[in-house]
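Record type: monomer structure entry
Structure origin: computed from sequence
Chain ID: A
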Amino acid sequence: MAFRSSIAAALGKSAHWAGETFMHRSPGNLPGVLAMKAAPLVLCDLAKKVDTVVVVSGTNGKTTTTNLVADCLAKAGRPLHCNRDGNNLESGVVTALLVRPEMQHAQGCQEQPVACFECDELYTKYVLPRVKPRFFMLLNLFRDQLDRVGEIDNVQQTIARALEATPDTVFLYNGDDPLCASIADRIPNESMAFGIACDMKLDGDRISDSRFCQKCGAALEYEYVHYGQLGAYRCPECGWRRPELSFAAEHVRMEEDGLVFDIDGHEVRTGQMGTYMIYNTLAAYAASKVSGLVEFDQFEQAVEAYRPTNGRLQTFTLGDRSVMTNLAKNPTGFNQNIRIVLNEGGHVLALFVNDEEADGIDVSWFWDIDFERWSEIEGLKAFVGGSRANDMQVRLKYAGIKADIVKNAADVLERTEAGDGKVYVIANYTALPPLRRELEAMQKEWEN
């Protein structure tokens, strides 16, 4: 490692130690930020020491999928680096490489560490050329934080250029998403698609992103739609269609413990609800398979043991009360949460939305969410919180839903009772962490 990078790494490691020692929590991106101040290209030197198997990106599902992939790779028995907390800018990847690798099954192992990283879509232009992963995985593309990111074509162009700058990286993408598939058509990289190869008999979202041909602009025809613009599509004008799937989930069905699908002659039990968990688990399977490091039984063990701990689909038990939290930061994410609540027969909803820089200041996307479907729930109790609580309250009013403003999760629990059933807390980026910490503290009190 270059001398300047060595100094930068030492500075970053010191910041990480100080954060954990004195703040008693993860310092987030700070160690990476400080290291990059001292050596802007420190990531290049740090990445040379590891075998970066995959970098994961996409609008929704990055953190969950990255953690699933990391759990699978950990089964291979080699030291592992991963930005599990969702710090997905370049500084977050640097931080993950500065800390000691996970050694769950690798005590005394002298093999080269493996790595998988989550990456913000726009930061792929920095991370991919410097990390040079074996695989780059793209989960989906939806409109998200338009005031920061811009329209989807800007994101597509950024990712395509990042892949062109790393020609040896294989592009592993969601073939059910025409917005992802069009990137594969414009880059020289080897590409492999994954997707759901059966009709799940779902009602298509009444509000969705682009369902137009990425070649000629004509309206796409769908054999079936899973959600948003994801499904089996074909252009009636130019013939462009969903690519052949290298990894195809088949015979998807709902069972008591969650969604189940078949692939390559194996049954995979996700243990979770929500169509997007099929995609997240399928993506983890694809990454495990192409890595050459993970056997199916190891993948299966990792998926069965996976329990969300970062607020995404996380369940808290507080005596006789149950609270599920989840992240939603764009219309598609909220619409999937709407579907989960309807499928599970939920009656208590709490939506927390902020407008910090990480969230995006423009909240006009509230009006693209299909809240009207919740208005059909009898006995619904709805609450809103966060800095944009009033805006969300107005949106729900126009959907025919009366919502009260609350300060936190404890306020929601005080205004409801056990007989109302599970409480669904849905929050965006900056609203979710404090809610998670609050519920974790409450759960600890009940356990003690």
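Annotation 1: The domain at 314-447 is CATH 3.90.190.20 (Protein-Tyrosine Phosphatase; Chain A).
Annotation 2: The chain has a mean pLDDT of 92.
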